[in-house]
Amino acid sequence: NAGVTQTPKFQVLKTGQSMTLQCAQDMNHNSMYWYRQDPGMGLRLIYYSASEGTTDKGEVPNGYNVSRLNKREFSLRLESAAPSQTSVYFCASSERGRGTGELFFGEGSRLTVL
Amino acid sequence: AQSVSQHNHHVILSEAASLELGCNYSYGGTVNLFWYVQYPGQHLQLLLKYFSGDPLVKGIKGFEAEFIKSKFSFNLRKPSVQWSDTAEYFCAVIFYNQGGKLIFGQGTELSVKP
What we know:
Helix content of chain A is about 0%, strand content about 50%. By secondary structure, chain A is mainly beta. In chain A, strand 5 (about 40-50) and strand 6 (about 55) form a beta hairpin. Chain B is mainly β.
């Protein structure tokens, strides 16, 4: 049972390049999330998806887009990367709706934008 | 806006010392409370949670936390820390007046000296 799987684990981009972070969960969870983790700032919610086909902005959505492809997969896209997007990104899922259950996290994707 | 504060950014203890990490939140309405732990190089995992009932919550690995509603606090405690408790600890709160958004504190890095 893999839980939440994120790819890639590491990525270096140049300013202006685009990329997609992939996330998949095998726990049949309805809700999925993307967070970014920055030193001294904890985790901040980028986007949230309550179910397939629905997405909602979090605290820091600017510069990102998401796609809930199906129940298992929730991708995060950076269309034109900026140095301010250098961070560690975590995907998470939960069984119940937003804010009512334990979150299960992936291992993180470390992104550096030069 | 609702917020979660962890006042200790870095705590250094010797093995067998007692631990208390502070967590305060800004809102007096209905909340759910969590502590997550991130061991070096790993993803976040749930340590304990409070939804309702007994305000003293026991979690894994000997950790406990006490919800004090009048102080808007949910401090994490452990009577005797071990070297293996070295990790970063995050307090997180669900604020129901914000549609159940889960907001994380800034994190506290705990270093336990053997």
